[in-house]
Amino acid sequence: MSKILSIGAGVMGTAITVPAVSNGHEAKLVGTSFDEDIINSVNKNSSHPKLGIKLINTSAIRFNEMSQEDINTSDVIVIGISSSGVDWFINFIKNFNVTNKHFLIVTKGLYINEKEELDIFPNKIKKQINQDFTLTAVTGPCKAVELAKKNLTNICFVNPDIEVAKNLSNIFKNEYYVVNLQTDLLGSELCAALKNMYAIAVGYSQTYFSNDEKIFNPESALFSHCVNEMSHFVKLIGGLQETVFGLSGIGDLHVTSGTGRNGLLGNLLAKNRTYEDIISKELKDETVEGAQTIRELNHFLNKLLKHNKLPILDSLVRCICQNEKLHIPWNDLNI
User: Structural domain boundaries of the chain?
Assistant: First the structure.
């Protein structure tokens, strides 16, 4: 029996432990300061209030209760915090010896490194913690609630050392959690962040052309153009284009644009509204990860767009960062 330690007791940090527990393993959730209600609920009646499920073979503690013994006895440590909590996680985990431990990261995001280059969170975590451990990413189409309720979910475990990914997958995979193995960590993590950005555009096309009747042609076309732009972007940064055309790219873009806050922002932008208007009303106090990533990378993206033709991304940057109304330049799109 293996022990899973998940730092972050939110929906994804918890959901990923469900298949492992189904396989006979144990899980311990470590709540951040934002997870107080979740920790109380799990300890009181073994239920997760946001996922709406009962948890078995799962315990819960607060982050300030976690000890070195919790680290030592864990076989897998899940990084399940939000993207905005990565710096907190790094500072927190530096207090422990994690040498030779195996981490599994479900947190997605990009940042600008010390060389002023676009980089992925796994590299930031490895560099700043500066201990010898493995870090495997989970990418692909996965709605946490669906996984928690044991609906079939097909994702990827990604590590340049495919044997590490394979060994970890043996703990989690089963009849409803199907794990593919990949080695393109850079491309997969780029896709995980890019799909949130491009899902805004797909969401826009879902409602802009539909009035009394649902229209599908524009959405299907724009989805294809978004995938094309994602593949160009990934190649420019050094990832493999083929990764975009698999679960980590197309698969994740499909599920993200169909549900969630990124697609909803696009739906609302299609009503001839601006980002600032929407974010101050319907999406006030909500984290729209695609928009957040665009704003955080605004300077880098503008430099990239000066030398590369990415018209959908250019429209998204103008919309999110300059508060222009979103416009899809159909005549400039070319697959």
Answer: 3-183, 186-332
Q: Express each pLDDT in 75-96 by its tens digit.
A: 999 999 988 899 999 999 999 9
pTM: 0.93
C-alpha to C-alpha distances, 332 to 18, 45, 152, 202, 225, nearest whole angstrom:
45, 56, 38, 17, 10
What is the C-alpha separation between 144 and 108, in angstroms, rounded?
A: 14
CATH of domain 186-332: 1.10.1040.10
Interatomic CA distance for residues 234 and 295, integer angstroms: 19
Contact criterion met (CB below 8 Å) for 167 and 87: no
Neighbours of 110 (CB within 10 A): 22
Pick one of 3.30.1490.20, 3.30.300.180, 3.30.70.20, 3.40.50.720 as the CATH number of 3-183.
3.40.50.720
Closest CA to 254 of 311, 304, 317, 191: 191
